[in-house]
Amino acid sequence: MAKVEYADAIKTVSGALTKINKKSLHAADQKMVLATHRVAPSTSGACSRLYLRGLSAVSRSTEPTSDELAARTRFSIVSAQVAQRKKNLATMNQDREAFEAQKNTPGGKKTLVSYLWMVVGAAYDAEHQG
Predict the structure, then answer these.
(1) Could you tell me which of 80, 120, 81, 84 has the C-alpha nearest to residue 99?
(2) CB 115 within 8 A of CB 94
(3) What is the pLDDT of residues 97-111, one digit of tens each?
(4) The overall pTM is greater than 0.90
(5) What backbone phi and psi angles, to 5 degrees, belong to 5?
């Protein structure tokens, strides 16, 4: 059995030490190494753990509901419209002025992109209501 000893300065280790390259042709043969180490009182004295995890093909057991499909459709359409609107030189100044006007108000969006998501999302919802 292997033993890992951490330096005294290390209080915690948590996360992936190696990851699986999902684009690789050999992804199914690779393993992810997860490590945890914490300094805490324990009865066994073992505060370190190493886990090996393979690539798991998670498949959904149920079909997406109509609400999920509607949310996916809304996200893809609004996302495309926000990207297009960010590049539109005709409305860029108006969008920036409207954003600056609402930014420091209570409930105002703090970034231009989040403001555009709010505006375009509200327009999409108004158009597709019912």
Answers:
(1) 120
(2) no
(3) 999 999 889 988 999
(4) no
(5) -115, 125
